[in-house]
Write a structure and sequence with these properties.
The complex is a heterodimer.
Chain A: H1 3-26, H2 35-49, E1 52-54, E2 58-60, H3 62-73, H4 87-107, H5 114-131, H6 138-141, H7 146-176, H8 180-212, H9 215-249, H10 251-254, H11 262-276, H12 281-292, H13 315-331, H14 336-343, H15 357-372, H16 378-390, H17 398-415
Antiparallel strand pairs in A: 1-2
Chain B: H1 4-23, H2 32-50, E1 53-54, E2 61-62, H3 66-86, H4 98-122, H5 144-170, H6 175-183, H7 185-208, H8 211-251, H9 260-274, H10 279-291, H11 301-304, H12 312-319, H13 321-329, H14 336-343, H15 365-379, H16 391-401, H17 408-421
Antiparallel strand pairs in B: 1-2
Classes of the chains: A mainly alpha, B mainly alpha.
Chain lengths: ~425, ~450
C-alpha cells in the first residue's frame, strides 16, 4: 500500500474512532436513537450498497454521498427548529452507514472499496466541521434567511466536491502513474456531473426536509435512483464498448494474421506511454481503441503476413494496411479520431506531414512488441529499445521512445 | 402520415381536456400568486419537455416533465396541473408536427387534471376552502399516500393515452408489445415515477423558498440525469456503429457475403419483434446475428475459396467456425444467450447440424432464430455458382426445411414478419472484379450443401 492511501486511511480511521468514542461518552443507557440519525444512516447504507462504476475503473457512491452531505448540512426537520447534532455525530452516522452498506459487498466477495469510503468520510467530516457550529445560528435555520443558508451550503458542497476530487486525483495519479495535474483534470471532467447532482441533491434534501420531515428521504430516493440508473447504464455501455473492441480486435489473431495477444499488448503499452507523456483520459481512450485496432486493415489482405509482424513488411504495404484499417474504422462514423491515428501509424515521426502523437506512440509500441512479444527477457527488451533509439532521427519520436523505455523498465522491475 | 383515426383520436383527447378544464371552476383562494406560480411551473415544464432524451435507441424519448406536472398537482390543484401540462403544445422541440403537439398538450393536460382530482379526493390535510398550495410541515406524512396515488394516476393516464395514439396510428397489431419492445417500457415507467416523486419535493421547497428558486435548484439533478441518459444513448449508437463496421471488415475478404451480417442481424431482429421478445433479449439477439459468422476468420481462406469437394479436414475446419466465433466474442459482456446463439447457429432441428449435433429444443432459441435469418439471406443473395433466388423462393426453401433444418415456429414468425416489414435484398453482386478470388461454396446455403469427399 502506498503512502498516500495509508495517510487517507489513517486520517479517516482517526476521525471514525474519535466519532465513535464521542458517541460512547455522550450516549447514556438505555440508548434512545434519534430518528434523523437512523434515517440518514440507513440512507447512507443503501447508497453505499448501490455503488456506481464510473468510466475508467472509478467507483462512486453518489446516493451515500448525497445522504451524508445532507446530514452534515441538515438544519432541521421542522421549519424554524434547528437540529442539534454535532460534527462528530455526523461522522459516526456516516461511518456506520458506510460500513453497513459495504458489508454486503464484502460478503459477496467484491472489493471493499475502502479508499473510496475513506475519501467520502474525510470529505463529509470536513464539511460537517465547518457547518455544524453554524447550523445553530438563526441566520441559517430561520425561513426568512433561506438565501444565506443556500449560499453557505452551495459553497460547502462545492468545497466538498473539490476535496473529494483532489483526494481522488492524488490516489489515481499514484495508481496509474499519471501526472497529478493531468489526473486532476481527468478527475474533474469525469466527476463534475455526478458532483453537481450530489451537491444539489444534498441541498434539496436539507430544504425539503424542513417541510416533509424524514419522509423526504424516502420520496427523494425515487429521482435519485433514476439518475443512478442512467449513470449505471452509461458506464455499462462504455465498458461493453471497450470490451467489444478488444474482442473484435482479436479477430486478426484468430485469423492468423497476428501473433496471439499482440493487439492487447500494444494497446496496454501505448496507453502506459501516453500516460507517461501526460495525455488526458479521452485521448488515452482514443489511443487505446486505435492501438487495439491498428492491425484491423490486415483483414482485407487475402493471405496473412507470416507471423503478422508488420515491421517486416515494406513501407508501401504497411501504409496500405493502415489506410484499409482506417477506412474500416471510419465506416463506424463515430471514431474518426481513432481512424486518423490508425491511418498515420506508419508515418515516420519526423516526416512531413507530421503524424499525431498517438500515431507515433502506436508506431513505437507496435515495433517494440513485434521485436519483444510477450517476453520479459531483460536483454531482449534492452536490444529492442536500443534499436528504437537508434532510429529516433527519422522513424521514431525521441520523447516517445524515452517514455517507452521508462515504462518498459518499470514493467521489468515490477516483475522481479 | 397521420391517419384519419389518429386525427379523430387527437381531436377527442383535446376536446375532453378543454372541456374538463372549462367546467372546473377555480377555487376562490386562487389569487395573483396562483398565476405567478403557474407561470413558473409552466416554464419548468417547458424546459423539461423541450429537451427530451432518447431512452432506448429508437423512437421514444423521455423527459422529466412529470415532475413539474406533479408539483402543480400539489401547488395549484387539478386545473393548474392541466394548464401546466398544456404548455407541451408550444414545446421548443423542433420538428414536431401540429397534430403531435396538440396531442402532447392535451395528453399532459388530461393526465395532470386526473392526477389533480385524485390528489384532491384523497387528501384531507388542506383546508377545504383552499385545497392546494405549498404544503405545511404538519401535513406530513399524511400527504404521502394521496400524492403517491396522484403520481400513479398521472403515469398510467399518460401511458394509456399514448397507447391509444400508437394504436390509432398503426391500426391493428400487438401495439403494447411493440411499445414494450421499442421503448424499454419498464425503464420508462420507473423513470416517470421517479421524476413524479420529485414533484412533491418541489412543492415542499416552494414552502421554504421562492418558487423560482425552488424550480432552479431542482433543474440541476434533472439535467444531470438527462445528461447521463443522453450519454448512454450516444454511446449505444457509437457501439452499434462500431460493431457493424468491424463485422463488415470481417466480411470484406469475401466478395459475395458482404452485408450478410447486417442483414442476418436485421432478420433476427424482425423475428424477435414478431415473437414479442423482451427488449434486452432482442437487442442481444441482433448483436448475436451480427457476429454469428465472425469465426469464419479462423477458417483458412483457401478452404473458403475451394471450388472442388472438401476433404474431411477442410470440412472439419468449416464446422469449427461457430466455436471460433465463440472464442472471439466470449469476453464481451453479452448475455450468455447471445453466445449460445453464435455457437449453435448451424445446428439443425433434426440433430444433423454442427458443432454439437443438438436437436429440437436442445438448440437455444437464439440459435434457431439466427439459423433461419442466416439461411434466408444466403438463398436470396448471389453466389458465384448461382444467381440470387427471389424472396418467394426463399420462403419456399424455408418452408421446405421447417421441421428438419429449421424450427417451424421461427420459420412462421419470420414469414409473418416478412409480410409485415418486407426485406431489403442484398445488393446484387453481379461480377466480382477479375483479380478477386471468391468463395465457391457457401456453408450457409441450404440449397447447395457443402460437398465433402467421402473417406475411403
Amino acid at each position: 500500500m502506498d503512502s498516500g492511501r495509508l495517510l487517507l486511511l489513517a486520517v479517516s480511521g482517526m476521525l471514525a474512532l474519535a466519532a465513535f468514542a464521542n458517541l460512547a461518552v455522550t450516549t447514556r443507557l438505555p440508548v434512545k436513537l434519534p430518528a434523523p440519525a437512523v434515517a440518514f444512516g440507513l440512507f447512507i447504507a443503501l447508497g453505499e450498497l448501490l455503488r456506481l462504476a464510473l468510466p475508467g475503473g472509478r467507483e462512486a457512491a453518489p446516493i451515500a454521498m448525497a445522504g451524508a452531505m445532507a446530514y452534515a448540512l441538515l438544519v432541521g426537520v421542522k421549519v424554524g427548529v434547528p437540529t442539534r447534532h454535532t460534527a462528530l455525530q455526523v461522522i459516526a452516522v456516516a461511518a456506520i452507514g458506510m460500513i453497513l452498506g459495504a458489508l454486503p459487498h464484502a460478503a459477496a466477495g467484491r472489493p471493499l472499496g475502502l479508499t473510496g469510503m475513506c475519501t467520502r468520510l474525510v470529505t463529509v467530516a470536513c464539511v460537517a466541521f465547518i457547518f455544524r457550529p453554524l447550523a445553530h445560528q438563526p441566520a441559517i435555520y430561520e425561513k426568512a434567511h433561506w438565501w444565506v443558508a443556500l449560499i453557505v451550503m452551495t459553497l460547502l458542497v462545492t468545497l466538498g466536491w473539490l476535496l473529494e476530487t483532489l483526494i481522488g486525483a492524488l490516489i489515481r495519479a499514484d495508481d496509474v502513474g499519471a501526472k497529478f495535474s493531468v489526473a486532476l483534470w481527468d478527475e474533474m471532467r469525469v466527476q463534475w456531473p455526478l458532483g453537481a447532482a450530489v451537491g444539489s441533491s444534498a441541498i434539496i434534501t436539507v430544504f425539503a426536509a424542513q417541510i416533509m420531515g424524514l419522509s423526504e428521504l424516502a420520496v427523494f430516493l425515487g429521482p435519485l435512483l433514476v439518475t443512478q440508473i442512467a449513470f449505471r447504464r452509461y458506464a455499462g455501455i462504455r465498458a461493453t464498448y471497450l470490451q467489444t473492441v478488444r474482442s473484435l480486435a482479436s479477430v486478426t489473431e484468430v485469423g492468423g494474421y497476428v501473433e496471439g495477444g499482440h493487439s492487447r499488448r500494444v494497446a496496454k503499452l501505448a496507453v502506459a506511454v501516453g500516460r507517461e507523456l501526460g495525455m488526458a483520459e479521452p485521448d488515452l481512450l482514443d489511443l487505446e481503441y486505435a492501438a487495439l485496432m491498428h492491425d484491423i486493415g490486415q483483414l482485407s489482405l487475402l493471405d496473412p503476413i507470416p507471423g503478422g509482424a508488420t515491421v517486416l513488411v515494406s513501407a508501401a504495404d504497411q501504409d496500405r494496411i493502415a489506410e484499409l484499417g482506417a477506412a474500416v474504422i471510419r465506416e463506424a462514423g463515430v471514431l474518426n479520431e481513432v481512424a486518423e491515428l490508425v491511418r498515420c501509424q506508419n508515418w515516420p515521426s519526423h516526416g512531413q506531414p507530421e503524424p499525431r502523437i498517438g500515431s507515433k506512440i502506436i508506431r513505437a509500441a507496435n515495433a517494440f512488441d513485434d521485436m519483444v512479444g510477450g517476453s520479459t527477457d531483460r536483454d531482449r527488451t534492452a536490444a529492442a529499445l536500443e534499436r528504437l533509439r537508434m532510429d529516433t532521427a527519422v522513424e521514431y519520436d525521441a520523447e516517445v521512445v524515452q517514455a517507452l523505455t521508462e515504462v518498459a523498465g518499470r514493467r521489468l522491475s515490477s516483475r522481479l | 402520415m397521420v391517419s384519419r383515426i389518429a386525427w379523430l383520436y387527437t381531436a377527442l383527447v383535446v376536446c375532453s381536456a378543454v372541456a374538463l378544464v372549462a367546467v372546473t371552476p377555480l377555487p376562490p383562494g386562487a389569487g395573483s400568486h396562483f398565476w405567478i406560480d403557474l407561470v413558473i411551473l409552466q416554464l419548468l415544464f417547458l424546459i423539461c419537455a423541450s429537451t427530451p432524451t432518447p431512452v432506448a435507441a429508437r423512437q421514444s424519448a423521455w423527459s422529466p416533465s412529470s415532475a413539474a406536472s406533479l408539483a402543480a398537482v400539489v401547488l395549484l390543484g387539478p386545473v393548474g396541473a392541466a394548464l401546466v401540462g398544456a404548455v407541451a403544445v408550444v414545446s421548443l422541440r423542433g420538428q414536431l408536427r401540429l397534430a403531435r403537439r396538440l396531442f402532447n398538450g392535451a395528453m399532459y393536460a388530461l393526465s395532470g387534471y386526473l392526477a389533480g382530482q385524485a390528489f384532491a379526493a384523497l387528501q384531507h390535510s388542506y383546508p377545504a376552502a383552499h385545497p392546494f398550495g405549498p404544503p405545511l410541515a404538519r401535513y406530513f406524512p399524511a400527504l404521502l399516500l394521496p400524492f403517491a396515488a396522484a403520481a400513479v394516476v398521472h403515469v398510467l393516464a399518460n401511458l394509456s393515452l399514448m397507447w391509444g395514439v400508437l394504436r390509432a396510428n398503426r391500426g391493428s397489431g400487438p401495439v403494447l408489445g411493440q411499445m414494450a419492445m421499442e421503448s424499454s417500457l419498464p425503464l420508462l415507467l420507473v423513470s416517470d415515477l421517479g421524476s413524479a416523486a420529485l414533484g412533491l419535493v418541489i412543492a415542499a421547497l416552494w414552502a421554504v423558498m421562492p418558487g423560482w428558486m425552488a424550480a432552479a435548484i431542482v433543474l440541476i439533478p434533472l439535467f444531470v440525469a438527462r445528461w447521463a441518459m443522453g450519454q448512454f444513448a450516444e454511446q449505444q449508437r457509437a457501439y452499434a456503429a462500431t460493431m457493424a463496421a468491424l463485422c463488415q471488415a470481417v466480411e470484406t475478404k469475401d466478395f459475395y457475403t458482404r452485408g450478410h451480417s447486417e442483414r442476418v442481424s436485421r432478420g433476427s431482429g424482425m423475428i424477435a419483434r414478431q415473437i414479442s421478445m423482451r427488449a434486452e433479449r432482442a437487442e442481444a439477439l441482433t448483436f448475436a446475428g451480427m457476429l454469428h459468422d465472425v469465426g469464419k476468420l479462423g477458417v483458412p481462406t483457401k478452404v473458403l475459396q475451394k471450388t472442388g469437394p472438401l476433404t474431411e479436414e477442410e470440412y472439419a475446419a468449416i464446422q469449427l467456425h461457430p466455436m471460433r466465433g465463440l472464442e472471439i466474442v466470449r469476453e464481451i459482456g453479452f448475455l450468455n444467450e447471445a453466445l449460445a446463439g453464435i455457437m449453435h447457429h448451424h445446428e439443425r432441428i433434426d440433430g444433423r447440424g454442427y458443432p454439437m449435433g443438438f436437436a429440437g429444443d436442445e438448440i437455444p432459441e437464439f440459435a434457431r432464430v439466427i439459423a433461419v435469418a442466416d439461411a434466408f439471406d444466403s438463398i436470396t443473395s448471389n453466389r458465384s455458382y448461382r444467381k440470387a433466388r427471389s424472396i418467394a423462393q426463399g420462403v419456399e426453401e424455408l418452408r421446405k426445411g421447417a421441421g428438419s433444418q429449421f424450427d417451424p415456429v421461427i420459420v412462421d414468425a419470420f414469414i409473418a414478419a416478412l409480410d409485415r416489414e418486407g426485406w431489403k435484398l442484398a445488393e446484387p453482386a453481379d461480377a466480382p472484379p477479375d483479380d478477386q478470388i471468391v468463395t465457391a461454396q457457401d456453408h450457409d446455403d441450404p440449397t447447395a450443401p457443402l460437398r465433402v469427399i467421402e473417406s475411403a
